[in-house]
Amino acid sequence: MPVEKLTDQLKGGLDAPICLTWELTYGCNLACIHCLSSSGRRDPRELSTAEARAVIDELHDMQVFYVNIGGGEPTIRPDFYELIDYSVERGVGVKFSTNGSTITAARAARLAGSDYVDVQISIDGADEATNDAVRGRGSYAAARRAMDHLAAAGFGPFKISVVMTRQNIPQLDRFQELADGYGAQLRLTRLRPSGRGADTWAQLHPTQEQQVQLYRWLVDRPGVLTGDSFFHLSALGEPLPGLNLCGAGRVVCLIDPVGDVYACPFVLHPEFKAGSVRDPGGFTVLWRESELFTDLRRPTSAGACASCGSYDACQGGCMAAKFFTGLPLDGPDPECVMGHGEALLAGVPAGSAPAPGPGHSVPVTLSSRRR
Amino acid sequence: MTSEPFDPATRWELDPKVALRPEPFGALAYHYGTRRLTFLRSKLLADVVAGLGGYDSAGAAIEDRVPAPSRPAYERALASLARSEFIRAC
After folding, report:
1. Residue B3 needs a FRET pair 20 to 30 A away by CA distance; which of A105, A285, B66, B81 works?
2. 3 state DSSP class of A218
3. Which of residues 46-75 of B touch A (CB under 8 A)?
């Protein structure tokens, strides 16, 4: 059996990503104040249906098992269902995130008929007031309607996806009850200071006490999905389930709506752009040979964290969180549970953190086709 | 659904809903039914798992491919894959 640790091997990169996020459109009918991709209006350069199908062909050839589709609101692309059908047909399973607005009873029934499609409905509060303060008026009701439709259609265990904030951490048990009531799976992810989140992170991100509370809650509930989001909390004790490493460019990457490829869904910024699926060689060559990804797969130094006994547990935390708060990448996470990040943040001059990447912050309006 | 206890004296095969993807460390295995992902941490283990269905028993597959000192570890690896339903009795 091999001697090298699995995490060390994974840091060196894989022939294809394990977890690939594909944002199909920047168009969205909501304007969540923490949106990672600053979504709103569609980009005229969005990949065409034919180009998107060619990407799926590549994913099939690379044996990518499944793709996480998001946006924006991916379902507003007129070819959305065509693309997910094509993906499943080519053996690439689909998990897609939606705010639920377009999941009617008929759509839910159609989705329930598909074996390899997982649906994640996003809410960020266990009640309307908490949720709508982040996701906008009417968004809680729309998400609950979508959940009702999926449950009524017998979809099975869909996922309820929540970004953890200072305002909703007190509602952890209520989220679990909501999921249990639907026979759904709860998925909690970490708030990042990315996209519009850069402007709201300071008000929304959990306090140190809440981080400890969240960690303990998660340790007691290994069945709750986290997308390996909270590995920075593993410095608090036993590691949380998952790989516990930054997967950016190593096992994870992002394809954005115009085909640009970034190291992870949380670093939409020119510095972390590997290229475009429209480049010669396509996604495959970018994943395997791009300068950026090759660089991210080199062994990294613990930097300022080298003297901390918890580095092996937390791996210095999230690259994107450091980058967009203006912290050095080879140092502590801004939410370092030992408090090292907080101390450093205090010394970051106002306005010196990098500005988020491509912004599309004007929401589209969902209109009925009456005319 | 519960998995069958692993008995190396019986016949096993890769679950038809599982895909194996070769990787430098061995292989990644993904179960399209349970949506679980697992790491097969040597090329030899990946070969044993992929070829399992061609033998009369899992034990025979191990004996044929794995050097004697490593066999108990491979048997444990297969038992774990049986528990997580990546391989099934046939």
Report:
1. B66
2. helix
3. 70, 73
With contact defined as beta carbons under 8 Å apart, do A312 and A287 qualify? Answer: no
Interface touch A1/B70, C-beta < 8 Å: yes
Q: What is the pLDDT of residues A144-197, one digit of tens each?
A: 999 999 999 999 999 999 999 999 999 999 999 999 999 999 999 999 999 999
Residue A173 burial class via C-beta count within 10 angstroms: exposed 0-12, middle 13-18, buried 19 and up: exposed
Distance between CA A107 and CA A345 in Å, rounded?
Answer: 46
Q: In what order do the strands lie in the sheet with B36-40?
A: B18-23, B26-31, B36-40
- The tally of CA atoms less than 13 A away on the side-chain side of residue B35 is 15
Residue with tokens 């809650």: A217
* B32/A245 Cα distance (integer angstroms): 24
For residue A70, the cross-strand partners are A23
Q: Which residues of B touch A14 (CB under 8 A)?
A: 23-24, 28
CA triplet A54, B28, B75: central angle to 5 degrees?
155
pLDDT tens per residue across span A277-322: 999 999 999 999 999 999 999 988 899 999 999 999 999 999 999 9
Q: Which residue of A has its CA nearest to B73?
A: A1
- Tokens describing residue B26: 């061995």
Residues near A103 by beta carbon (within 8 Å), at least 6 away in sequence: A75, A111, A119, A121, A145, A146, A149, A150
Question: In 3-state terms, what secondary structure has residue A69?
Answer: strand
Give pTM, 2 decimals.
Answer: 0.93
